Amino acid sequence: MAAVKDKGNFAQGSVSSNILRLAGPMVIAQMINVLYNLVDRMYIGRLAETGRLALTGIGICAPVLTIIMAFANLCGVGGSPLFSMARGKGDDKQARHIIGNAFFMMISLGVILTIIAFAIKKPLLYWLGADEETYVYANQYLSVYLIGSIAVMISLGMNPFINAQGAGRTGMLTVAIGAVINIILDPIFIFALDMGVSGAALATIISQAASAVWVLAFLCGKRAAVKFSLADMRPKAETIKRITLLGTSGFCLSFTTSLVQMLCNTNLRDLGGTLYVSIMTVINSIRDIFFAGVNGLTNGTTPVISYNYGAGKYSRVREAIRFCTGASLLYCIVAWAVIMIFPGFFIRIFNSDPELLEIGVRSFHIYFAAFAFMAFQLTGQVVSLALGKAKTAIFFSLLRKVIVMAPLIIILPKLFGLGVNGVFLAEPISNVIGGLACWITMMLTVYRPLKNKADEPDILPE
Q1: Predicted pLDDT of residue 139
Q2: 398-414 burial by CB neighbour count: b if 16+ within 10 A, else e?
Q3: Are the C-beta atoms of 130 and 257 separated by less than 8 Å?
Q4: Alpha-carbon distance 251 to 446, whole Å?
Q5: Is residue 460 part of a domain?
Q6: Domain tally for the chain?
Q7: Domain membership flag for residue 397
Q8: Closest Cα to residue 302, out of 275, 328, 279, 263?
Q9: What is the pTM of this model?
Q10: Which end of the chain is more exposed for a tag (fewer CB within 10 A), N or C?
């Protein structure tokens, strides 16, 4: 236990080393987590005769899956910075209370979401872009996936509390265990048992359930520096309010992603047909792969910033912000170059249809044109979140997706004969505007003021 506690004291040692020690496993974990959907889509896209339609059906379900993740983020991303701040102040009792209330919220929301989703499933899928051909596949996938939605929320939402204790490798194993199980079960269920799309969903929820068991075994076990029990789950209105307020940023980020996915799918279906929905499904898959890297890096910065802010080590907070910005920007530039040079390679992973390939390459070049600016968006966002500045984090979650991107998806196709290209063009424009606005605001309102605050003396127990 002592070893875990030492690893979780981010007020000591090199700031960059602390970040990389957490970010390394988180990046790997994020990449592995992407495999859940990626492997499903790879296998489904290669089903004989029905591959492209089945791939489109899964893509139509994506906004619903993202909403489930949004509620997991509401609890996990909202609770873990508060948890780190409490630990930075040496208040482990409050830290346990925060974990317990976050878990209570997760279970409650999971049950409610599952009931609602089943009740409105058919009209929802048509609203998200399904037609008579693709509804069959979307319905098969979502019907099975919803059964395991609570396990999905636990594995995603509780894992940040493992990372916040400095146990990055254990957090990485959370998703690694699930991903390996998913990879093994996918071909068995999809092809050997001839379950098709339903088999892909079943493999996913079984693997997520295994991850959920792993998470709870750690957080309730002896290896955790701060573990929780059923007594910590007793809900307290003030704690739930704080978690919700801070978690609203992560929720908005995921929820608005769902909104944008829905707008893209429906507009592409109406403007170009299901072929373009398939292309967007592939684009979303590749974006998730590269986004996972920078997201893992910025998430690795969150506990370091929160802990040092709680401990009054403001110079270390500034150092963490500088490192996060530089490392994230470097990663995004490299990722952008790889995507722009090899779009055909990534498309062929899912389907080798000549028409899909031809149109997909052009769409890739448009959609990913300003991917590097995501570094500014995520850095600004994570700093606000880590310091508990909920209103700022929420605003910038809404700015890029709702205020800028959503209207562009609707307006651009009608201008200059852009058509479907206008839908793809909305992404890079929003990346530039939203990313720069978020990062510049963070530098002016957070980074510069911290320069005038002197570090507090060491008061934490060894």
Answers
A1: 95
A2: bbbbbbbbbebbeebbe
A3: no
A4: 22
A5: no
A6: 1
A7: yes
A8: 328
A9: 0.73
A10: C
